[in-house]
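Changelog note: in this version the structure field was regenerated for every chain. One regenerated record is shown below for reference.
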Amino acid sequence: MTNAPRRQPEQQAPPVQKLQVRYAKRGRARFTSHRDFSRAFERALRRAGVPMAYSSGYNPHQRVSFANASPTGAATEAEYLEIGLREVADPDAVRAALDAALPDGLHVLEVVVAPPGGIADRLTASTWEIGVAGVPREVLERAVASLLAADHAEVERMTKTGLRTFDARAAIIGLEVVGDDTLRLVSAHSTPLVRPDDVLQALGRVDDAFAPTDPPLLTRRAQGTWDGARVVGPFEAHPGE
């Protein structure tokens, strides 16, 4: 007895429209992991009736592409993703429907028709607000000055392949004290990606007095490309456009 050949899965049509989405995580939703957010977003797509395109293969899935998600525990006003649709839809209607379908603390802020090329090409830098408790302002200013004056700042991070050492200083575009307990960081998206907690580790290495008493409060305020003065979001007009 011969086994019947395995039936090939149905091939799905390519998307007829791609939309790019900016979303926020606020309040307690900042503790939502990327995996939990992706599941919540896929449920919201179904509840909102968004006409999603699906991938081909034996396990078709919604065409959703996430870009450079913020770390768990960080609030954000500037996360991005792209969805592919099987029908043309109004971006404003999709935004309203998705925002209403998401849990508290997760918000869809903007939806636009995707321009040619991937969104990742326009996500090369971030602006972060970092709240650090228990560090006197003069220590903050001294540690920031020392780090900016350094050529290198080696930090360590545990990865899936073990402990990794890398230079956090190279990714820092700007770092300043903007309040008695608040820093503003502008960082390039390097490889490996330098996160705000890596910069905080670097500050502690250049100044022993830099020792926050509580976990830092991280908020990504902007994500996009650095134009020499600020981080320009991917939905904003860029110089020369």
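Spot check on this record: The first strand starts at residue 17 and ends at 25. The two ends are 66 Å apart (CA to CA).
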